[in-house]
Amino acid sequence: MNGDEGMRLEMLGGLKFKGATFRRPKPLLLLGYLALEGPKPRRYLAELFWPEAKNPPGSLSVALTQIKKAVPGVLLVDESAVEARLDTDVAVLKAAVESRAWAEVDALYRGPFLQGLDLALGPELEEWVYTWRERIEGWVSEARLALGEAALERGDLESARRFAEAALRAGEPIEDSLGVRLLLLLTASGSPLARSLARSLGLPRSVPCRLPQPATRFIGRQSLLDSIEARLLNPATRLVSLVGMGGVGKSRSALELAHRLCQRGCFVGGVYWVDLEGVEPDALAEAILSALAGRSGLAGSAWERLAGTLADRYVLLVLDNFEPLIEAAPRLSWLLARFPGLKILVTSRERLGLKEEWVIRLGGLDTRPEKAGAFSEAEMLFLERARQLNDRFTLREWDRPVLARICELVEGLPLGLELAAGWTEHDRLEGIAAAIERGAGYASAPWKNVPERHRTLRAMLEQSMALLEPEQRRAFLKLSVFVGVFRAEAAVAVLGMSASGLGGLVQKSLLEQPAPGRYRMHSLLQGFALRKLSEYGDLAQKARDAHARYYLSWLQEKTLGKEMLREMREALANLRAAWRWAVARGWDEALAEASETLKFFFDAEGRFEEGLFWMEKALSKMSDSRARGHVQTVQGWFLARVGRLEEAREVSEAARSVLERLGDVAGVQKALNNLGLQAYRAGDYTAAARAWEAALEVARARGDRRAMGRLLHNLALAAYPLGDYERAERYFLEALARDREAGYVAGEANTLNNLGNLHRLRGGLEAARRVLETGLQLARAHDLRQIEPYLLYNLGQVALDQGDVGEARARFEAALRLVRQTGERVLEGSALLNLGAALLRLGFLEVAERHIRSGLHVVWTVQDIPEVLRGLVVFSELMLAKDRQETAARVLSVVRRHPAARAHNRERAEALWQRIRGRGHGESAPPSLEAVLTELGIIRPALGYALDPG
Length: 950
Known about the structure:
Layout: E1 8-10, E2 16-18, H1 25-37, E3 40-41, H2 42-49, H3 56-70, E4 75-77, E5 81-84, H4 89-98, H5 102-108, H6 123-153, H7 157-171, H8 176-188, H9 194-200, E6 209-210, H10 222-233, E7 239-243, H11 250-264, E8 271-275, H12 284-292, H13 302-310, E9 315-320, H14 330-338, E10 342-348, E11 357-361, H15 377-389, H16 400-409, H17 414-422, H18 429-438, H19 457-466, H20 470-479, E12 486-487, H21 488-495, H22 499-507, E13 512-515, E14 518-520, H23 523-533, H24 539-557, H25 562-585, H26 588-605, H27 608-619, H28 625-641, H29 645-661, H30 665-681, H31 685-702, H32 705-719, H33 725-742, H34 745-761, H35 765-781, H36 788-801, H37 805-822, H38 825-841, H39 845-861, H40 865-881, H41 885-897, H42 903-917, H43 929-935
Parallel strand pairs: 6-8, 7-10, 7-11, 8-9, 9-10
Antiparallel strand pairs: 1-2, 3-5, 4-5, 12-14, 13-14
Helix pairs in contact: 1-3, 2-3, 4-5, 5-6, 6-7, 6-8, 7-8, 12-13, 15-17, 16-18, 20-23, 21-24, 24-25, 24-26, 25-26, 26-27, 26-28, 27-28, 28-29, 28-30, 29-30, 30-31, 31-32, 32-33, 33-34, 34-35, 34-36, 35-36, 36-37, 36-38, 37-38, 38-39, 38-40, 39-40, 40-41, 40-42, 41-42
């Protein structure tokens, strides 16, 4: 190549020498020829370029001299041959093609090879020009086609259409494989040039559509049809399978899409429907031939005749109900490999397992409306079928929740909705919903022209199960003991299922896989399978036993933290089923051992009523006294959390008495600790201290250092609301020593948190900050996500006391973000209160009020009365800032007199009271706490106040 930078012979879109002033066309053409074809003999060049000249060698010599003079160094000439060494744009284009740099190819192409060259060329040289021109146009068409296909893949239809039309203009390829690809791209991108290309490829002008006419209007799923169409029209896709359980609407969706594609003329060779109902695998080719109305007179086997029929056609085959023919699926690969213009859409309960296959799984119709007041897709289908069958059917406003319930019960399954709608002639919606809850065989189709498998849900489900091998069938039935989502390891542990066994049921649409390693069974399938399972003797009881034992043991292995909460939320439906079964079977010990973990879960989630219900359910059948005592301890915890403090105390006392009589000292210790917590919640700090001191004696006797640290910590908490800060500090320091001896890092971090807060209350703000920062480092080093937000919260309180409101706000917001992940409702309420206090200091009164109200609502909901009283102090400060002194006075009158108010909160309330006392607000009988909260709209939030201001 010529080393002179910037000099290049350009032959695309014309002929010129970039970087030189030389313009003579014949010598430039000679240069281009030599650059592309390599060294050539002088005699050959003379006769090729000057065939009509009197002296061809002389003409060549003149041209070579002109070139050497104008552009020195580009030619190597001797007596016999000539060689050119220079850059050309064609060489650069060729290199880009070889490296498949399609965008570069498109950018380099400026027009046809040697466009506008006006020379009298001999036949051989003219053939050379046109050969190179076609070759380059083919490269450019290939590049633009690839760019258009990539644009279509990412959904950029405008770019796809632009590249497709540019590819067509670059050379109008008629070669089959390129032409079919380009036709698909033009059609998929909506180009009007698709028809003209189809004609140039010899395809028919009208699109043959051999499709059955739908009997009913298609409802919903428009976005799904759009995605299937985009996938099917994608050049990289040859085979799409719509897979789903029976009755989910695979055939109807495929038919709707097929009609849409016919109307748009997307497949110029035709769209053909092949109903495979009752077809045997060896008759597949004949069934397709029949649908295609195959060419007569063709010899050979059915597959050979089918090949002759499909030759040179751009066709979509829709193969409906393929699942009984899975063994014949490799034949589809054979067809696709032979015919580039063929695409196949399959409906099946089971994927085909072919390399070419793109699987789209269909679920039920959407059961939730897009906007409030509208009907969901499932509801619209039900209503249309009900009105179609019963012209007297009307939906009353009070029926809407029942309709929504019906749709949820069948999970939007179209067949279930249609069968349910068929019974509106005979029953009210409430009766239909109740019938669905009782079982899957509640209704039969009112239409005579539907397949037998769709006459009833039971028939459809029986057919689905009939596709399974005996072992697979037993596994499917046993899996019905799981409720909702379950993990693969649970199925392995409970039933001995393998991952491949689960995958096989997913493949047959009898299990769904909502996430990797997670499975679920459609509720109708599960109900059907449970009833079938009962027909297998004691298999059902063994499966339920294994399921319940697994989940109760799994509960005992859980440790408190974010991961536990996440896993238990996911497993809650199965835990509930396991708990019910264990109660029915009288597994008292297992229930007692699992109850403590459930306490932590429901407490962290703020779901106290639900936790109480679980405990009461267990206690209703319990006979074992020891187990009963342990469960009563947890029951007492939840009773306190829902504000039933007297009942909580009675239940916990009863549990302590029973466990003491049985000599269960560990249980006694828990019951005493529970009694202390209940008294603390009620604001009776003296009673709390007595209970915790008694529990501490038990822990010391047992040598339980970890429990000793926690109980010392609790005793400190009881001391400082009474203003006994010295005793509180002494207890905290002793608790810290016990935590460190026991290696209990979480306890150490928690104690540092409360010790830091004690320093703050005593005015030692710098000491408080140091202790809290130490605790925060410890919590982060050990990933103590349950404790970290408390430390951030108290650091925010220190910053607020120091007047750094900006830092305080940031700390409270960080604590709030974390606590909403861990689910600790008490701290969520406290953080909202303090965030409101910080915003109040910054002057954002309205935003502050929303946060304070939200915080009060949360702490009242969890019945943390001392924290409710603290929140009311903050609220009174807000009222004073808004010059609403009457409201502030009424709120403060409650806090000043309430026995559960902590000492420092009572002192603050008293100071605020003294500020407004001289302004005409005197002593009066204070309202009850519940009364003032009701007046303020906290118990039942007032309209216009967000309870989750985020």
